[in-house]
Amino acid sequence: EVQLVESGGGLVQPGGSLRLSCAASRFISSSYDMNWVRQAPGKGLEWISFMTNENSPKYYADSVRGRFTISRDDASNSLYLQMNYLRAEDTAVYYCATHRPGLDDAFDVWGRGTVVTVSS
Amino acid sequence: DIQMTQSPSSLSASVGDRVTITCRASQSINTYLNWYQQKPGKAPKLLIYAASSLQSGVPSRFSGSGSGTEFTLTISSLQPEDFASYYCQQTYNKPRRTFGQGTKVEIK
Questions:
Q1: Phi, psi of A75 (to 5 degrees)
Q2: Cα–Cα distance between B11 and A19 in angstroms, integer?
């Protein structure tokens, strides 16, 4: 089964750090592009980060650039999001998502999400 | 970044109704437009890609159309399981594949 599973969410104080993980099933090729998308409580979807491989540029939304870092470990089929200097407005469900070939880059595989709460 | 604007933000409809949701892009995106359905507490699910192509397994009552800056998602006969939120997404400006703000379809 094609699957992505996020982990690492939790409660963190403002200014703190958290590292999210996304484990991909063996049916997700290490050549697939990977994204992080988040959704604040009661709000819409926000694309926040993208990467192809460690040798290619990584991209971020303005809201997280300079604070978040995306990375991947193809040996373990895992994607990561290192989140530093967290703010209350980073509170959200964080999803990893990929787009397999042939679907015009539509995100056809999503994880279930992991909840991040930034609060004192 | 390309801005995506959906209308309406919410709508009330009855089972069997024909429902249309509009998505407008701030610049031309050709047909690089996707539609997703999201139910409470669940991840989004891809419905339509490339403006009008139905994703495998999605019922044929869902259809998409449009090109350039204006797009529509139509549900020909609303079913109870279709009450959800719907989002458009542009994939023209890669990799910043931005979403619309969403449309919530509620039971009338």
A1: -65, -35
A2: 38
Question: Nearest chain A Cα to B48, which residue?
Answer: A106
Q: What count of Cα atoms within 13 Å lies in the side-chain half-sphere of residue A78?
A: 12
> What is the residue-averaged pLDDT of chain A?
93
Contact A106 B98 (CB under 8 A): no
Q: Are B64 and B71 in contact (CB under 8 A)?
A: yes
Structure tokens given for A103: 């679907």
The answer to whether A72 and A83 are in contact (CB under 8 A) is no
Structure tokens at A120: 């004192």
CA distance A110 to chain B (A): 7
pLDDT over threshold 80, residue A1: no
* DSSP code of residue A33: -
Interchain CB distance below 8 Å, A33 and B32: no
